From TrEMBL:
Organism, as annotated: Cylicocyclus nassatus (Nematode worm)
GO cellular component entries: extracellular region
Domain named Chitin-binding type-2: residues: 54-113
Pfam families: CBM_14
Gene3D superfamilies noted in UniProt: Chitin binding domain (2.170.140.10)
Superkingdom of source: Eukaryota
Protein name: Chitin-binding type-2 domain-containing protein
Molecular function as annotated in GO: chitin binding
Chain coiled-coil ranges: none
InterPro entries: Chitin-bd_dom (IPR002557), Chitin-bd_dom_sf (IPR036508)
């Protein structure tokens, strides 16, 4: 009998950085990140900068080194030398937070099917 490790929609903080959290999806924990300028607090992403708490970003080729730009799917933030730098996606693509790359809009439902010009 299948027994999930968590319950759908539950969240928990990642102790190593205040803007990271995990959300239960299909019985497994998936790591996610709050948008730039937000931190995870009491189950939600709220306005607040982790850098104010002395926690600069850490360069990584994995998901921890990238963040989506809230309200603009065609851009993302990349950690460069301990600071978040805004970067554009290539023409015709949007940032896919699940895989930390720019991708076709139809692969990124949270962008609402937005197709950049």
């Amino acid at each position: 009998m299948y027994k999930p490790t968590c319950y759908e929609g539950n969240t928990r903080p990642v102790k190593t950085h205040c803007s990271l959290y995990e959300e239960c999806s299909h019985g497994r924990w998936e790591r996610k990140a709050c948008p730039y300028g937000y931190k995870f607090y009491n189950g939600y992403c709220v306005v607040g900068n982790c850098n104010e708490e002395g926690q600069p970003c850490v360069e990584s080729s994995g998901r921890d080194g990238y963040r989506r730009v809230q309200h603009d799917c065609t851009k993302f933030y990349q950690c460069v030398h301990g600071k978040w730098m805004e970067q554009p996606c290539g023409p015709g693509t949007v940032f896919n937070e699940r895989v930390s790359v720019c991708d076709f809009a139809w692969n990124v439902p949270e962008c609402g099917g937005y197709l950049p010009k």
